[in-house]
Design brief:
- The chain has about 290 residues and is of the alpha/beta class.
- It contains 7 helices and 15 strands.
- β10 and β11 form a beta hairpin.
- α2 runs parallel beside α4, α3 runs antiparallel to α4 and α4 runs parallel beside α5.
């Protein structure tokens, strides 16, 4: 990508090359993330420059190349599901599939239904779905268009925390199963670390840096009162005196106030860790 776009007083300048299947765009609201992916998808046209996707030129200002949005084979999932209210879940899912030419129809309806676990929802109207169910259907509709790139623009920000982390496994599973590279846009550091490998940091309409998600987290840990957030993927062992015991490597961690999840992702802030040189007694927690 080597493009520029002027939108009122805001100007986007992007000059970058990125490769991979799990790419993140990270930055605060108004930094230019959605503008950039809109230009890649063809929703807007750059003022100048070039965009190449997997070796194909999809935009070139000088050569007057501008592949129409419907021919770029880029699927999009937005913050709001934007499902068609007059169609059933099944008809929503098939909307993109029916507009995909036969040569690109590699992903089938049955396979997507299985991965997203939405078979009981197929005959429902979309108004009769929960927020998490609607987002799963929106993901399925985008995947069934058989895209070569999936753009997810803040797909989790409209959900509360409990729903958000229910959707994450479906997002990851569907992209890994069908090997669809994606651009994942968010201003959440936790979402970046869970969903992406390479991250493009966007600030004031420019690419401020390119790094791994873990490098970005360590660079920015001083900006948050929570410090550095450790992400622990734990396997459930057993209950003991009202606590839930999880395996952490060869050790056990004791957790309170959750259900018996066979496997779960936990956050542990560096500010909640206390180190002792000797046996902990009569010591301040402000260590």
């Amino acid at each position: 990508i080597d493009i520029s776009k002027q939108l009122g007083a805001f100007r986007l300048e992007a000059d970058l090359t990125v490769a991979g299947e799990r790419i993140g765009l990270f930055g605060p609201s108004g930094s230019g993330k959605s503008t950039l992916v809109g230009l890649v998808a063809g929703l807007h046209q750059p003022d100048r420059g070039v965009i190449l996707l997997d070796g194909e030129t999809i935009f070139d200002h000088r050569k007057r190349i501008n592949i129409p949005v419907e021919q770029r084979r880029i699927g999009m999932v937005f913050q709001l599901p934007h499902l068609f209210p007059h169609l059933s879940v099944k008809s929503n899912l098939l909307y993109g599939y029916r507009r995909c030419t036969q040569e690109y129809r590699k992903i089938t309806l049955d396979s997507v239904i299985g991965v997203l676990q939405i078979e009981p929802l197929l005959d429902r109207g979309v108004r009769n779905l929960s927020g998490g169910e609607r987002q799963r259907v929106a993901i399925g509709r985008a995947v069934l268009s058989n895209p070569r790139l999936l753009i997810m623009d803040e797909p989790l920000s409209g959900l509360d925390d409990s729903l958000k982390f229910q959707i994450v496994p479906f997002l990851k599973n569907v992209c890994e199963t069908f090997r669809i590279p994606y651009l994942f846009i968010s201003h959440s550091m936790i979402e970046m670390r869970i969903m992406t490998d390479q991250v493009l940091s966007v600030a004031d309409g420019q690419i401020a840096g390119q790094m791994t998600a873990e490098e970005l987290a360590r660079i920015r840990m001083g900006d948050s009162k929570a410090g550095y957030i450790n992400l622990l993927k734990l396997r459930f062992s057993h209950r003991l005196d009202g606590l839930h015991v999880y395996y952490w490597g060869d050790a056990h961690l004791f957790v309170s106030g959750i259900s018996d999840l066979p496997e779960a992702l936990f956050e542990l802030s560096s500010t909640d860790i206390i180190l002792f040189k000797r046996h902990p007694e009569a010591i301040s927690a402000r260590n």
